[in-house]
Task: structure prediction
Amino acid sequence: MTTELDGKRVVLTGGAGDIGRECARAFLEQGARLHLIDIRGDALDAAVQELDAGKNVTTFCSAIDTPAACAEALDAAGGPLYALVHLAGVFEPDDLKPEDRVVWDRAIAYNLTNAYDMTVAFIPRTGEHETCRLVFISSIAATQGSRFYPPYNAAKAGLIGLIRSLSMSLAPRILVNGLAPGLIDTRMPADLMAKHGEEIMRNVPLGRMGHPREVASVILFLCTSASSYITGQTIQVDGGILRR
Result:
């Protein structure tokens, strides 16, 4: 059966991660051609083997930490791009030590600056005759805050501002949206949950963590015609934590 994503090239940064692999499955089921970018080459190899999608999946190992690196990573996709789903990022606690700003610098570079650089690289590499998609992953921490992760929170809040601005700058050619996940059952929040999980879960009305596929399904929606009149939005996928 033919679907609207048949043959369209979709790029997933952080494509070897837990949410990245679920996104890959969802897009492959809709006939898309995937290009996975990740800093971990061994994890990319494992993801390709797990997905077992043959020529429909290409990979590129990169930290996407400079404009040139972003351009090179997208060129490796091999053709015009339909969608960029930017999942890559870092999540580190910060001790707020006055002599050391390294956590702040990494948070901004790998959660916000690379989103801008990937966008600038994506724009000239899109197809010519269709409305394309940009999807970014923010976090409920952007609006809720967290006492352990101020740099991460600031970067994710910056992403929401970037989404709003780009949705105006790139309309109507490219639709730009984002997600603000809450507690998703991935490796990223494992340490946080081990230390503070009982306290955190008391604030989740649905009483559980989300599954990566529950994030992937919303990302897929934002890359189909079902979302053709949605741009500039950041959708909360958080089990009801924020309720606004």
